[in-house]
Amino acid sequence: MTDAVAAIPEETAPVPLLEPREGLPPVVADEQALAAAVAAFAAGRGPVAVDAERASGYRYGQRAYLIQLRRAGAGTALIDPIACPDLHALGTALADAEWVVHAATQDLPCLGEVGMRPRTLFDTELAGRLAGFPRVGLGPMTENVLGLSLAKEHSAVDWSTRPLPEPWLRYAALDVEVLVELRDALEQELDAQGKLDWALQEFAALAAAPLPSPRVDPWRRTSQLHKVRRRRQLAAVRELWQTRDRMARERDVSPGRVLPDAAIVNAALAMPTNAAGLVAVQGFGPRVNRRQVEQWLAALQRARELPESQLPAATAPHDGPPPPRAWAEKDPVAAARLSAARAAVTAMAEEKHLPAENLITPDLVRRVCWEPPAVSDADNIAASLRRLGARQWQTDLVAPALATAFDQAAS
What pLDDT digit, counting tens, does each position of 345-387 carry? Predict the structure, then answer.
């Protein structure tokens, strides 16, 4: 870190942040209170701190169950998006404000679902990465930069609980209490390091990015799927995953609470044909009721009856280069380019004091190494990276290093 924002000395204990400055506000849970909040935040000044709490691991999906806001002149608001599911008016009121968010990629999708999308933002987690902080969670960042400690004991609670307990609400309010102050300090730090323009380009890309689309073959993200080798067993994983997903959606619970991933994989490997065989599979056991047993067995039967032509491919479909482990056999020249490029990116990331994946995403490096421009000079490599989505600051830094790496690999 530079002297602009010096980390708090180890011998100095951080000051606990225990109470919101203006006290704990009531939860906004009806149209009248929401209208008042919209008016207050529209009249506020400067950036607005925004956070959202989800019920990951408890409920189906990633919807927001509490939204926290803070802005100068408006104070703090805690909004219940279940009671007030349409927040387009609030989003409009904040349209011209810069949003300060920590880990924007986590919160923007659920905020977008209720009608809130920023035009400009400042991501304090990403700012911390670019500035070279080793720990970029909100707690460590607040402590290292501002000398204030946030209690995080309620970070993994079930935010769908109603009514929300007062200690949880206090925790949520404190998450936005000093977020704007953290933003200002990080802006100063990035400017001192000559990285502020990098950050602004990244923030602009985050604000302009579309909401994520549904994944192709989401069942392939089942943990321990690497144990499953045969295509018919993969079909069983798919059928079991889709059955579990339907159950979880109908019950509005996290899929892992219906059936753990390990049980899906174990059943696909064993392919039991009756209730006794299924109950004997690790992860099922006697707790599975009769109706569920019938549904799991039906899923396995569907997998057994699928014709060969409808079985899933052994590997996930993709539009990019093959896995790097296969490069040496498929294209040794490309493998040499990738090895040299990775070394160059790692060296530059260390020099610039930021994670290599923030300097340039590994996928972009792989793609340009697998299909390099016909003339692999810095300008053409930069153009290729920009077409793939790299920002200008990234191509300015990385393209010359990759051009040199490609020359070395070819010699």
Answer: 999 999 999 999 999 999 999 999 999 999 999 999 999 999 9
3-state secondary structure of 65: strand
Dihedral angle computed from the Cα positions of residues 326, 328, 329 and 333, in that order, rounded to the nearest 10 degrees: 120
Burial class (CB in 10 A: 0-12, 13-18, 19+), 308: exposed
User: Each residue of 112-136: pLDDT tens digit?
Assistant: 999 999 999 999 999 999 999 999 9
pTM, 2 dp? 0.92
- Are the CB atoms for 213 and 177 separated by under 8 Å? no
What Å distances lie between residue 4 and 100, 132, 190, 246, CA to CA?
20, 14, 9, 52
Fold of 218-310: DNA polymerase; domain 1 (1.10.150)
User: What pLDDT, on a 0 to 100 scale, did the predictor assign at position 378?
Assistant: 97
The tokens of 141 are what?
């960042």
* CA–CA dist 301, 290 (Å, integer): 16
Contact of 231 with 313, CB cutoff 8 Å: yes
User: Does the domain spanning 3-208 belong to CATH 3.30.420.10?
Assistant: yes
